[in-house]
Each structure stands twice: as structure tokens, then as C-alpha cells.
Amino acid sequence: MTGQAERPETEIDEESSGAETGAETGAEAGAAETEGGDAGTALAAAEAKAAENWERYVRAAAETENVRKRASRDVENAHKFALERFGKELLAVKDGLEMALAASENASVESLLEGSAATLKLLGSTMERFGIEQLDPDGEPFDPEWHEAIDVRPSDTVEPGTVLTVVQKGYSLNGRLLRPAMVIVAAD
């Protein structure tokens, strides 16, 4: 609903209501009597009730529109900031790499290797905390749902259909494939 709803304005047709002829059904007469016996009072009460119901409708329509807008805004924010925690965790990895580059002029090869290994370990633990798992199917049976065969080679050491070499590791996010592992498979 984009705008304010309009209240239908109708006029009471005297002829069709039976007021001119004075014809009332038994139920209408009884209702008029319970409202004080006056048809004008009954009409005023009905109009007041209609106005009250219209006001309730307008308020309910506005509330529904507000809830829809709020839900839309919440979904938009959830999409926009879903990776916020992950991004904050990756900042530590980036900081480690920057410190390693800054210290590389005076560092030995061994210390650079240690720093790289520590940074890689930090990145791996960050990924695990967020449900990203590494797929390293070396020696496992080939599974086309998780692996991408880039070559097939004969092998006497493993059964046919087994992964011989992992060229590039794959990754999954909470059980959903992010990237398949690129593998070389033993031929049949």
C-alpha cells in the first residue's frame, strides 16, 4: 500500500432505504427500538461505528506498511553487513602480512618462513571459525560433487578413480561448495 486509503463516501438513498414509505422489517424495527427507538439515533450509532472501524483499518494498514518497510531495511542491512565479523578477523591476517613485508629487509629467510607459516595458520583458524573448510582429497575416491578432474593418468599404485594429486585445494562453507578441488585422477 503506497498511499493513504480513501474512505468511500456514500449517500443514503431515501427511497431504497424504505424511509419514505415507512416500511421497516421486524429486525430493523427491533434494532431501532434497542437503540432508543429513534431511527436517527440508530443511524448515528452506525455511522460512529463505521468511522471507528475505518480508523482501525487505516491504522492497521499503516502499521502493516511500517512492518514491511522495517523488515525490508533489516534484510538489506543483514546482506550489507553479513561479512563484518569475518572482515574484522581478516584484518589480523593483513596486519601480519604487512609487518612481514616491513621487516623483510633485515630478516633472515628462516624468520620470514616462520612468519609466513604463522600468518597462514592464523588465516586457516579464522576460516575455520567461520565454517570454511579446506578440501584436500589426496588419496580419496574422486567425487564430482566436490572435485574437478583436470587430468586422468594411469597408475599402478592406487585403484582407478582415486585422486592421485591435488593441484589446487577446494573449500566448502558450512557444507556448501565454495570451490572444487582441482585434481588428477587415476585412470580406469
Task: Describe the overall structure.
The chain is an alpha+beta fold and 188 residues long. It has three domains: 27-80; 83-130; 133-188, Roll (Nucleotide Exchange Factor Grpe, Chain A, domain 2), CATH 2.30.22.10. The chain is 51% helix and 16% strand. The protein is built from five helices and six strands. The strands form two sheets. The protein has a three-stranded antiparallel beta sheet with strand order 1-4-5. The protein has a three-stranded mixed beta sheet with strand order 2-6-3, with no helix packed on it. A hairpin with a 2-residue loop joins strand 4 and strand 5. Helix 4 packs antiparallel against helix 5. The longest helix is centred in the N-terminal third of the chain and has 42 residues, at 39-80. The protein is elongated and about 105 Å long.
Keywords:
188 residues, three-stranded mixed β-sheet, 6 strands, 51% helix, Nucleotide Exchange Factor Grpe, Chain A, domain 2, alpha+beta
Low-confidence stretches: 11-27
CATH topology of the largest domain: Nucleotide Exchange Factor Grpe, Chain A, domain 2
Number of helices: 5
What's the CATH class label of the largest domain? Mainly Beta
Classification by helices and strands = alpha+beta
What helical percentage do the residues reach?
A: 40-55%
Q: State the CATH architecture of the largest domain.
A: Roll
User: What number of domains?
Assistant: 3
Mean pLDDT figure: 83
Report the order of strands and helices: HHHHHEEEEEE
Q: Radius of gyration, Cα only, in angstroms?
A: 38 Å
The major pleated sheet works out as: 3 strands, antiparallel
